[in-house]
């Protein structure tokens, strides 16, 4: 028996796909509603910490992810200026425990594709082009889901994994919303120069942070974190030109990144946000997970990892129980809230130190502390 036998998942990001895969593998009938017509994974590459990799293993997806990504060890801090001198090398903490690499980079589109394949194999009913517009929870035993105003069926549980601007969050009366942190990020997908074998960050210079992460034998993504600007309407050519100009103070591998940008590379822009919904994340038979429940600047690259942990812990509890009880929700919140809170607080603090120009701040210590905390499973 499982606590639920028919579940609607809203959203096909990492959190929604992970929850759907786990429940379907346990024999639960799962329909996944996604507003977009096809899988979308904007934003170039992603850095996956060990605790994210451990979560993929729980889903049965780790061998495929390991084969598709670029595992590496450690993080270097470099300074702006000639020669891009390495000023610190951070100790390696395996935040997923000893069985996984400490970190891995991969193209977001590949990650999304692998999770989708696992969802199909598990038997998840995929409803692309289906925007959930309302929920009716008036019946205590089930929730009715409406897509574009029409009923799409009744479910024992609705999992709102519908991202930062979650409609499900609003529908259940939670009015917490993501707030800008004051930083914006340019990201581009480029060729990996052979000397880039791990993530490297440059603190200081014309932007707050410049950095890159390898995502494959031939690919990596590079980024510049600046003061949040209104960049609406910037064309692809203008975006690439801005990244070229803002990165001129950075030497080393940035020379190759600029060459790629000048040869027709594209860049996208987004603001950093922060929010954390206090417990409970559920209202009756509707629960939010992933970015719907929490967001943070990617200063320690833990956002997706936290959404994955939400999905793995929630589904583990749902599969082990016979019914949805207050005790199940209590355990879910006890296992997830402290970790999500610690990650949001540390990520926001790291960004704030950059904004304040605090040169004494112990960024390495903060990153190391979170990795150690995450090494113990949720
Ligand atoms: C610049 C930046 C860099 C980042 N880098 C990293 C990193 O390196 N490592 C890391 O771990 N994390 C990183 N993150 C965080 C990570 O990207 C997010 O935490 C994660 O992708 C959120 O996944 P999700 O499944 O919760 O939501 P999403 O991926 O946002 O998915 C939500 C889905 O719900 C759908 N949807 C919305 N409304 C509805 C509706 N009403 N009906 C149906 N579908 C709907 C949307 O179309 C979307 O597909 C970064 C974030 C940013 C902003």
**Envelope shape:** globular
Q: If helices are DSSP runs of H or I spanning 4 or more residues, what is the number of helices?
A: 10
Whole-number average pLDDT? 95
**What's the number of extended β-strand segments?**
20
Low-confidence stretches: none
Question: How many strands, what sense, and barrel or not for the largest sheet?
Answer: 8 strands, mixed
SSE topology string: EHEEHHEEEEHEEEEEHEEEEHHEEEEHHH
- What proportion strand? 25-35%
Helix content: 25-40%
Structural class computed from helices and strand pairing: alpha+beta
Radius of gyration: 21 Å
How many angstroms separate the termini?
23 Å
The strand order across the widest sheet is: 6-5-14-15-16-13-17-20
The ligands bound in this entry are: flavin-adenine dinucleotide
Highlighted features:
alpha+beta; eight-stranded mixed sheet; 378 residues; binds flavin-adenine dinucleotide
């Amino acid at each position: 028996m499982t606590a639920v036998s028919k579940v609607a998942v809203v959203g096909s990001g990492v959190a929604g796909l992970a929850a759907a895969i786990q429940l379907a593998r346990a024999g639960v009938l799962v329909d996944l509603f996604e507003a977009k017509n096809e899988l979308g994974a904007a934003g170039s590459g992603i850095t996956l910490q060990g605790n994210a990799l451990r979560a993929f293993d729980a889903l049965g997806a780790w061998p495929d992810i390991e084969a598709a990504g670029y595992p590496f060890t450690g993080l270097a801090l470099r300074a702006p200026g000639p020669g891009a001198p390495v000023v610190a090398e951070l100790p390696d903490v395996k935040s997923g425990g000893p069985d996984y690499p400490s970190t891995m980079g991969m193209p977001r589109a590949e990650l999304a594709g692998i999770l989708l394949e696992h969802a199909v194999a598990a038997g998840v009913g995929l409803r692309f082009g289906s925007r959930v517009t309302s929920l009716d929870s008036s019946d205590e035993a089930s929730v009715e889901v409406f897509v574009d105003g029409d009923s799409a069926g009744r479910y024992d549980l609705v999992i709102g994994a519908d991202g930062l601007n979650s409609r499900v969050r609003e529908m259940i009366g939670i009015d917490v919303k993501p707030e800008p942190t004051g930083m914006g990020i340019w990201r581009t997908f480029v060729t990996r120069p052979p000397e880039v074998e791990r993530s490297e960050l440059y603190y200081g210079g014309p932007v707050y942070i410049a950095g890159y992460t390898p995502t494959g034998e031939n690919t990596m993504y590079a980024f510049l974190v600046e003061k949040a600007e209104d960049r609406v309407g910037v064309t692809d050519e203008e975006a690439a030109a801005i990244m070229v100009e803002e990165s001129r103070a950075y030497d080393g591998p940035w020379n190759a990144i600029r060459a790629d940008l000048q040869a027709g590379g594209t860049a996208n822009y987004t603001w950093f946000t922060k929010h954390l919904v206090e417990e409970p994340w559920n209202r009756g038979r509707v629960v939010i997970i992933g970015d719907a429940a929490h967001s943070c600047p990617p200063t320690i690259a833990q956002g997706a990892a936290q959404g994955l942990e939400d999905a793995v812990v929630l589904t583990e509890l749902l599969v082990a129980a016979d019914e949805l009880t207050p005790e199940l929700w209590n355990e879910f919140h006890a296992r997830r809230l402290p970790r999500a809170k610690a990650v949001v607080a540390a990520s926001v603090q790291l960004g704030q130190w950059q904004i304040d120009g605090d040169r004494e701040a112990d960024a390495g210590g903060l990153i190391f502390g979170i990795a150690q905390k995450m090494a113990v499973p949720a």
